[in-house]
C-alpha cells in the first residue's frame, strides 16, 4: 500500500482534481488503458496513451485501486492533493507456474487469469503473443511475454471484435478481426514497443500468400491438392523462374475405387427385399458414398521445410517420407506405416464411440516444431492426445508425450515444448495456456 500525503487541504464540500501518470517500473514506459477506480464507488478513470489520468475527488482520504493486465494491482491512499500530476509505477505480475505431472513430463500453466480467457496465441521470434478477452469479447487485449511467462507488453487490440492471429509465409504476424480486417504486428525490443502499423484484409493476405507453405532463399514453396484429395502437386514460385512444379503424387488405387463406387451408386438396382410392387427397383442410397468421401483424406501428403537446403514430403499415398533438396530432387526415401490401418466401418466407429477404446489412433495431423523443425504425429484416444516424434531416417516413431487434459485445443510445438489451450469444466472456467516438455 502506498500512502500519498500532499498539499493543499481539500475543504469540506469542495471537488478537486487528482491527476497522475502511470508508468512501467522497469522501463518507465507509460502504461495505457489501466483502470483507476475509487474504492467503494462507481467513479473511476482509464489512463490514456501517455499514461495520464484524472479523477474528481470530493472528500479525503480516498483509496484508489489501480490495475492493468500483466501488472500487480497498486493500492493507493490519497490524503492530500497537489496541482501537478503524480508519477506512479506498476510492477510486472509474476505468475505462479504450477505444474501438473503426468508420467514423466510436467504440464506448466504459462498464462492464467481469473478474468481473461486466451483466444489465440502465436510465436513472435522467441516470445509469445497472446490474444486474451473478457465479457463476450467486449474487452480484448494483446499480451506479449517471453517463454518463461514474464510479461513484456500489454496493449489493447487495434480493432474489435477479435478473431485470432495469422502468421504468413514470411513469418509476419497479423491480428485478425471478425469483419475481415488484418493488422500486421511490429515489435521493437529496444523500446519494448508493440504496434500494428500496417492494415489490410485477411482475404487479401490469403489470396496472395495463403497458398504458400514456406520460404527458402528466394523461393516460395507451395502444395496443391485436387478436389477429392487423390492428387498432390508440389512446387515453388520465384521471380526468376516463375511458377514451377517439382513433384506430383497420386493415389491411383483410391481413385479407381472411388470412381467405381460413384458409378455404381448412380445406377438403379433390383431390390432383393421389396416392400411392395412399387419397390422392386429403386436407386441405391448415396449415404455410403458420402460417408466414404467424408472420411477420405483430402491430401496425398504433407510438405515441410526441414532446413535451408532440405524439404520433406510425407507421401501417404505411397507410404514413404521423401527428403528432397531445394530443387525438388530426391535425397533419401524412407518407408512409413504409422498412418496405416486407420479406417473402420460405420458400425465399428459407432461402437467405439459408445463403449470407448484403449487404442491410440492417428488423427491425420502432423505438427512441426517451429524452432527445431522436428516432426510429430498426433494420436488420440477418447479425447486425450499423444505426440510422437518421427525419425526421418528410419520412418519409425520415437519418444512420445501425453497431454494431461482431455480435449485440448490449438496445439503447437516450439523449441522442444508443446503448447496448448485448455478450459476446465464449468461455465466460469477460463481458457488457460499450458506448455509441456517433449523430452
What can you tell me about this protein's structure?
- It is a single chain.
- The protein has 439 residues and is mainly β.
- It folds into three domains: 89 residues, Carboxypeptidase-like, regulatory domain (Immunoglobulin-like, Sandwich); 89 residues; 227 residues, no CATH class.
- It has four helices and 35 strands.
- The strands form nine sheets. Strands 1-7-6-3-4 form a five-stranded mixed beta sheet, with no helix packed on it. It has a five-stranded antiparallel beta sheet with strand order 9-10-35-34-33, with no helix packed on it. Strands 11-12-13-14 form a four-stranded antiparallel beta sheet, with no helix packed on it.
- A hairpin with a 3-residue loop joins strand 16 and strand 17.
- About 9% of the residues have low confidence.
Amino acid at each position: 500500500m502506498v500512502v500519498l500525503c500532499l498539499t493543499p487541504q481539500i475543504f469540506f464540500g469542495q471537488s478537486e482534481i487528482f491527476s497522475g501518470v502511470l508508468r512501467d517500473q522497469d522501463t518507465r514506459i507509460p502504461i495505457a488503458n489501466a483502470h483507476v477506480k475509487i474504492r467503494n464507488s462507481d467513479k473511476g478513470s482509464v489512463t490514456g496513451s501517455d499514461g495520464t489520468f484524472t479523477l474528481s475527488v470530493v472528500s479525503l482520504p480516498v483509496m484508489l485501486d489501480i490495475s492493468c493486465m500483466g501488472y500487480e494491482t497498486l493500492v493507493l491512499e490519497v490524503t492530500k492533493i497537489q496541482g501537478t500530476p503524480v508519477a506512479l509505477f506498476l510492477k510486472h505480475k509474476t505468475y505462479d507456474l504450477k505444474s501438473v505431472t503426468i508420467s514423466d513430463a510436467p504440464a506448466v500453466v504459462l498464462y492464467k487469469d481469473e478474468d481473461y480467457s486466451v483466444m489465440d496465441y502465436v510465436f513472435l521470434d522467441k516470445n509469445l503473443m497472446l490474444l486474451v478477452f473478457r465479457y463476450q469479447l467486449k474487452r480484448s487485449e494483446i499480451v506479449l511475454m517471453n517463454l518463461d511467462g514474464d510479461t513484456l507488453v500489454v496493449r489493447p487490440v487495434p480493432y474489435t471484435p477479435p478473431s485470432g492471429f495469422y502468421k504468413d509465409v514470411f513469418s509476419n504476424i497479423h491480428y485478425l478481426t471478425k469483419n475481415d480486417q488484418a493488422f500486421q504486428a511490429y515489435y521493437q525490443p529496444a523500446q519494448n514497443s508493440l504496434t500494428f502499423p500496417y492494415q489490410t484484409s485477411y482475404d487479401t493476405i490469403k489470396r496472395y500468400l495463403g497458398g504458400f507453405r514456406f520460404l527458402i532463399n528466394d523461393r516460395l514453396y507451395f502444395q496443391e491438392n485436387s478436389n477429392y484429395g487423390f492428387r498432390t502437386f508440389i512446387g515453388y514460385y520465384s521471380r526468376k523462374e516463375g511458377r514451377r512444379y517439382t513433384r506430383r503424387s497420386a493415389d491411383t488405387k483410391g481413385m479407381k475405387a472411388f470412381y467405381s463406387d460413384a458409378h455404381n451408386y448412380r445406377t438403379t438396382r433390383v431390390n432383393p427385399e421389396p416392400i411392395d410392387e412399387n419397390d422392386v427397383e429403386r436407386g441405391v442410397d448415396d449415404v455410403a458414398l458420402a460417408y466414404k468421401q467424408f472420411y477420405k483424406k483430402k491430401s496425398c501428403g504433407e510438405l515441410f521445410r526441414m532446413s535451408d537446403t532440405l524439404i520433406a514430403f510425407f507421401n501417404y499415398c505411397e507410404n514413404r517420407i521423401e527428403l528432397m533438396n531445394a530443387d525438388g530432387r530426391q535425397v533419401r526415401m524412407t518407408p512409413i506405416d504409422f498412418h496405416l490401418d486407420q479406417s473402420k466401418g460405420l458400425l465399428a466407429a459407432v461402437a467405439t464411440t459408445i463403449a470407448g477404446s484403449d487404442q491410440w489412433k492417428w488423427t491425420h495431423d502432423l505438427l512441426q516444431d517451429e524452432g527445431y523443425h522436428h516432426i510429430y504425429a498426433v494420436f488420440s484416444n477418447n479425447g486425450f492426445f499423444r505426440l510422437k516424434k518421427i525419425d526421418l531416417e528410419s520412418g519409425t516413431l520415437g519418444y512420445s508425450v501425453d497431454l494431461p487434459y482431455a480435449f485440448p485445443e490449438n496445439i503447437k510445438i516450439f523449441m522442444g515444448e508443446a503448447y496448448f489451450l485448455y478450459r476446465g469444466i464449468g461455465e466460469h472456467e477460463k481458457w488457460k495456456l499450458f506448455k509441456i516438455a517433449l523430452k
